[in-house]
Amino acid sequence: MEHALQRAASTAYEAAHGAIEERDASDAPTKWRLLATPRVVVTVTLVVVLVVAMFAFTPRGASRATLPMESARAEAEAPVSATLVVHVAGAVASPGVYTLEVGMRVGDAVAAAGGVVDGADTDALNLARELVDGEQVRVPVEGAVTESSGLINVNVADAVALEQLPGVGPVLAGRIVTYRDAHGPFPSIDALDDVSGVGPTILEQIRAVATV
Length: 212
Description:
Blueprint: H1 2-35, H2 38-76, E1 83-90, E2 96-101, H3 106-112, E3 136-139, E4 152-153, H4 159-162, H5 170-183, H6 200-207, E5 210-211
Parallel strand pairs: 1-3, 4-5
Antiparallel strand pairs: 1-2
């Protein structure tokens, strides 16, 4: 009887445990089948692709974004032109256009033009003044401008100084010098009327700022 009860209990235990194992074994494929549905596979694949793309393209995109900034920085740091251009005229050895360094003075421009010639009035210039790009430096002849009145002496002034007279350009200034060299000094301002191109209007304008 006792043995019969033990066998019955053992059989029941084995039956119970066998049923559990069979249930566990049968549940595993079911759970895997649920996890491995097409939707799950597609979702996992997309996540993997996005992660890979993030690591693959983010550094390259960042470097592209910095290119405009680097270009702007390079332009800002580009050296500014350190030269200027001036026209040196008047009583100098070699009048002309000269390229000089920024910060140079009127005296440097005169020296670049070969220095002054005999009769130049350097006191009429501020040789220590700093040059400005595009300006004209004129070295007058001594006596071209009288210190007392500030008037231009048409019998002494060269063509460059004569261009300072109202209505007188390079061509007319040259004619005045040519006429003066051929006929001698002008006896009066009215005598300028004999120069071709000097009409009554220009003569009246000159009269106010010129002397003989």
